[in-house]
Amino acid sequence: MEEVGMVEEKNLNSSQEEQQESKSENNTNEFEKDSNESDKTIEKLQEQLKTLEEENSVLKQQNSELKDSYLRSRADFDNYKKRIQREFEEKEKFLVQKVIEDILPALDDLERAVDAAKDADDVTALHEGVTMISSQILSVLEKKWGLVKFSALNEPFDPNKHEAFMIEQGDYKQPVVIEEFQKGYSLHERIIRPARVKVGMPAPSGQNNKDDMSDSRAEEHTQEKQSDEKGEN
After folding, report:
1. What are the pLDDT digits (tens) for 182-211?
2. What string of H, E and C letters represents the secondary structure of 65-124?
3. In the chain, what are the domains?
4. What mean pLDDT do residues 57-72 have?
5. Which H/E stretch holds residue 199?
6. What does the alpha-carbon distance between residue 162 and residue 225 come to, in Å, rounded to a whole number?
7. Looking at residue 77, what is its pLDDT?
């Protein structure tokens, strides 16, 4: 019996040892497995890190190139603005050159007329020559540059076109231009100088006074209109 008990005890111990060995072996396998997985994870992270570093290097290079491109573009734009400003100032300086070139022949004729007038006895011929030159200049300005001289005499008073320099009350049905002191001019249908005129105003009831007098209301109306036009220009 004792021998049987010893055998059983020995078998039990052997079985326990085998179980412990098996458990130890399993633990070792699991550790190795975990270690392998950790190594793979580390390798994967290292690869990702390397990829990110490469991408970062590329982005830095692109950023540097974009910065250089921006600085060059900014410098080009600044140079462009300076060039445009110089060209604008140059054009503004010689803006009336073409106009002057067009009226130079008339000015030459006027100069010759002035020289001829020194020894001229015929005032009529001189008057005709100056009148012709004046018409020549006006014709050039009208045909090539859109300048129009307009007359206001006997027209209804229009503060858009006329400047009331003097007022006369009398037997008038409505304000009307009765005398013209200075011609008016328009450029491409825009009034650039109103005609300076004397205006005949209807007299108050029971009065027919034709004495020259100033009418502050008409003058103020004209001045306000001219001020508005200057503001628009």
Report:
1. 999 999 989 999 999 999 999 886 554 444
2. HHHHHHHHHHHHHHHHHHHHHHHHHHHHHCCCHHHHHHHHHHHHHHHHHHHHHCCCCCHH
3. 76-145 (no CATH), 149-232 (2.30.22.10)
4. 91
5. strand 195-202
6. 10
7. 92
